[in-house]
Structures are given as C-alpha cells and as structure tokens.
Design goal:
- With about 180 residues, the chain is α+β, with helices and mostly antiparallel strands.
- Helices cover about 30% and strands about 30% of the residues.
- The chain has helices at about 25-45, 50-65, 120-125, 160-175; strands at about 15-20, 75, 80-85, 90, 95-105, 110-115, 125-130, 145, 150-155.
- Strands 1-2-3-4-7 form a 5-stranded antiparallel beta sheet.
- Helix 1 packs antiparallel against helix 2.
- It starts with 14 loop residues before the first strand and ends with a helix.
Length: about 180
Amino acid sequence: MKSTPALDQKHPHGYTVAYEREEIQFPVYVVGFVSACFAVAGISLDNIFLIALALIAFGFAYYNFPLLETGRPRIGASQYGIFADGLGIISWRAVKRLDLIPIEIRGTASNELRIMLQEPLDRALLADWRKRPFYRFLMRLPWTKLGDDVIRIPLDVFDRPAEQIHQNFERMMAFYRR
C-alpha cells in the first residue's frame, strides 16, 4: 500500500507522543558503556566469558536503542485513527474500546493502553508499517499484540501521563467516529 502524506510514518499529524526524555535513556547508555568495557577486557585478556557478557549487554542496549530517539513520535492519533511506530494506523471504525489498565508488577504500578479491535488486525490497519528495515528488526516496539484483536501499549515510558494519553485518544475517537 502506498502511503499518502497524511498517512506517512515519518510525518504524523494530530496528537503524538514520544518516549520520555529524562531518566529512561540513562540505563541504555550505561549498558552500552559496560558492553564496550567487557568487550575490550575480553579481547585484551582473551577471555570468552567477558566477550559473552559483552554480547549480552550489547544485545540489551541494541534492543532498547529506540528509547534514545526521544523526539520521534511513537504513538498518536489523528483523523484516520490510532497509530503506533512499527505497526501502522488502526482505523477508528475498527476500534471497539480503549481501556487504561493499571498493572502491579513486584510492587511497581504501571499503566498500559489496551486497544480492543472489532476485526482482525490485518483488516483494521489503514496503513501497515510492520515491515521494518533489517537493522531495526530486533529493536523495541512501543506495542505488543494479544491475539488477533487486542493491542497492548505500555504508557509509562512516554513523555505524557498515561491518563492524559488515554483521555485524548478517547476524545478523538468520540469526535472522529461521529
């Protein structure tokens, strides 16, 4: 499917949310630095264990690299529907319900947005952005899929409060579904 400028992944319109700019980047930088230190020590000492640790740490830093790209919109909503980086644009007509779910994991509270679809994801997408370049294939996505009709988006890593994101999505859905 060819994207029109309004459905373009690089220039989204409407309400957009990016990754948080504060403390979320620090662990990625630290793990990248630790990976480099392990690699240098492993190569200079000819220690396979340190090289293995360097590869594991590098894999973690590589997976979380998108957290460093803070200015780029990752999720949002427009007149066409809800969009997520690496997923596409889900039509407003295909959205059954938007739920803000609080989740308690090991004493830490977090929030996730659950998008319940009325039809399978393949039919709900107006623009399909799931094909990514090879070098980004193993990197973090801002969404996960639960079955064919539920999309989960953890909201605590974004630069706006979870309640605000949910309220804006609900408001836009009510307006554009009229």
